[in-house]
Amino acid sequence: MVQLKSKNTVVGIDKGELVSYVVQGHEFIHQKGSPGWGSADTEMFPIIGPVNEANFRVKTPKGEAVQDQHGLLRQMEYELEHQTETSAVFAKEYPSGTEVSNSKFPEKSTEEALSWPYDFRFEKSFLLTDDSLEIHFKVSGEEGMPFMLGYHPAFKLHSESPVIIAKDKEISLDEVLAVGSRALQVPDCTAITLKDKKEITITTEGFGHFMCWTEVGNMVCIEPITFYPYAVEQANLHQGFQKLEDSAQFKVILSPRT
Questions:
Q1: pTM of the model
Q2: Which of 48, 129, 181, 201 has the smallest count of CB within 10 Å of its CB?
Q3: One Pfam family of this protein, by short name (predicted)?
């Protein structure tokens, strides 16, 4: 477990996963073991969304790739590359064509192994400042590699009627629950505020959109995304790709108001 500390703030990171963000005694991150989701955060790469209706295949310029929901990056382990009292850098490296075991097999998937026809390096770094937690993502690899990126953090809810504010519009938890597994689309948006017992704002660079998901009342996932996957049929998921030019950088800033 990696811990970052600053003033009245403690951040817990378990193998690259943000598992705790406590500010003045208030925990903002959903805890593993609590109802709703077995993780606290993850990345969706190189695809976002399910592909079960497309036989777990995604079209690329190098042919079809075998992928499962939200891509293969989450099936790989991070390596800790650097750490200070207020920062940590993790990375995953993938050689093209390498088979990665699929944890969804066989209960939720027919695919035992996933693969991608491009080399890439994925870096995730954390920087704790006096008033926020910055999470940086850097994708590097083959020129022209198609990809989508989504960040999937889960926030712990402390009240019965939390409100999500996006572009001056209020979104209730009931509205998110009503959409179910598809996740509520919040297009053309770079900042969302979650008003609960305490308030936190999620500001982004490079993503452009959000989607919100939960199926319980004690947590909500507020997810920056480059593409909303349910805008197309699963067989056409490739329409949401952008192309890598040398490298691509993205940022998420968590700014609590306690």
A1: 0.97
A2: 181
A3: Aldose_epim
